[in-house]
Amino acid sequence: MDDIIALCKRRGFIYPSSEIYGGFSGVYDYGHYGTLLKNNIQDAWWREMVLYRKDVIGLDSGIFMHPTTWKASGHVDSFSDPQIDCRNCKNRMRADHYLEKFGHDVDRVPLAEVNKILDELRTQKKLHCDKCGSENLTEARDFNLLVQSNFGSPIGKLQDLPGKDVVYPRGETCQGIYLNYKNVIDSMRIKPPFGIAQVGKAFRNEIVVKQFIFRTREFEQMEMQYFLHPNDMDQKFEYWKEERMNWYLRILQIPKEKLRFKKHEKLVHYAKAAYDIQYQFTCLDKYDEVEGIHQRGDWDLSRHGQFSGQKLDYLNPVTKERFIPHIMETSVGLNRLVLMILDMAYSKEDLGGGKNRVVLKLPTRIAPVKVAIFPLQKNEKLRKLAEDLYINMRGLFVTEFDDAGNIGKMYRRQDEIGTPFCVTIDYQSLEDQTVTVRERDSMKQERIHLDKISAYMKKKLSI
Ligand code: ATP
Predict the structure, then answer these.
(1) 361-411 tens-digit pLDDT
(2) Measured from the CB, is residue 221 less than 6 Å from ligand 1?
């Protein structure tokens, strides 16, 4: 993980937040290449999930919603994780994660039972703070993950705000989809089964945020909520599980053996089935969740119908059947995918003779920069030809021009940001209009005529 974090900072992918003020945990800032990489992953998701489908449409709802949304969804009362605190060093720990080390799975287990297990460990002198080692730990208590704000309120201090007026930046993006279900049905000439997809920020007061961008307090989700008749659920659920897994294999080119489904054994009371897609993170040394695929039953529309007093059912115009659509969701963390891609792509290679290189072997579609163009040396004629090529190429692909170092350094920099092709203009180029194209992974070089370079790149980059 340290290597990936260092590369991200060194090469302008991801910076810690508010560094000049000593940092701000749980938040990260995306630099030039990190933004390009994240946008490419998002684009690859949006294309497959929205643009290439007739049954899914897009949405971009607000981060803030009416506060009753979160009461109806159940988040105000039960969106919490069990927290234990160290009285000695004030370290906070998630009891469920802590107990995993002892082979206990306490996901969705009542707090009293969690505390019973912790008590047993305490008696056996096995309960220690994972930071300072102290045995002086509190009991587990529920810690609500919703972030609170006084958004839109004339009352300046949050503690003076009546509970009903506390406004929450969304804890998950899908609630904005449920609130717009009726608008979409009324305006988009669409009927169940259909999906609504959106990408956006979500905020959670995570107890522990240790694993770089894997778990942060501000993050982005890409969610698709599929509304259907309950009889269609099982078949559609299997269909979407397969679709989503194929997206990782085909579009992100993740090796099959690095991915698996994990079935949820314990379900929330309204859910009928739930699976996670897990990726084997080398940097975390374990499989962990990147996406959840869940059957949510009619919970969401029933609850919002009940709390808003609006009818959120659907009348089938042919059969005249009236029903509340059930919902199946696919929910991915975009930042987790960035970490997954970096984890997959990062490699250190021994080049022999005491030399090595770091290279990001990113799929070409996801790579932030597709082509880099360099003049071999600081020479006006070489520079002019390289710049002309850059101007031609930048309208076709994300292209960089670089002449700020020797060729070795320029290759190293592009390898570290994962650029699939580097094009060098040298003295021979001035004579015969050919350039050297170097491929990132094999480092093989070939000479291509300038007239053919755009077509060559289009073919290689499959664009
Ligand atoms: P976890 O068990 O890791 O806390 P979750 O099951 O609560 O995640 P969901 O609410 O199902 O997660 O959210 C869907 C997806 O959003 C997750 O699969 C994950 O990729 C992403 N996600 C959730 N919480 C975070 C977070 N704090 N930071 C980054 N991504 C997150």
Answers:
(1) 999 999 999 999 999 988 899 999 999 999 999 999 999 999 887 898 999
(2) yes
Residue nearest to atom 4 of ligand 1 (CA): 215
Q: Looking at ligand 1, which residue's alpha carbon is closest to its atom 8?
A: 289
Q: Would the CB of 331 count as within 6 Å of ligand 1?
A: yes
Which candidate, 294, 292, 279, places its Cα nearest to that of 338? 279
Instruction: For 156-268, list the strands marked E by DSSP.
Output: 194-203, 218-228, 259-263
Note the pLDDT tens digit of each residue in 196-233. Answer: 999 999 999 999 998 999 999 999 999 999 999 999 99
- Helix (H/G/I), strand (E/B), else coil: 442: coil
Q: Which CATH class is domain 369-460?
A: alpha beta
CATH topology of domain 2-63+170-342: BirA Bifunctional Protein; domain 2 (3.30.930)
Spans of all domains in the chain: 2-63+170-342, 369-460
Q: Which residues are within 8 A (CB) of 103 and not within 5 positions of it... i.e. 6 or more apart? A: none
Q: Inter-axis angle of helices 32-46 and 334-345, to 10 degrees?
A: 110
User: What separation in Å is there between the alpha carbon of 61 and the centre of ligand 1?
Assistant: 19
Question: If you ran DSSP here, which 8-state letter would residue 124 be given?
Answer: T
Backbone angles phi, psi at 320, to 5 degrees: 65, 15
Residue 149 DSSP label: B
Would you say the CATH fold of 369-460 matches that of 2-63+170-342? no
Ligand 1 atom 2, closest CA: 289
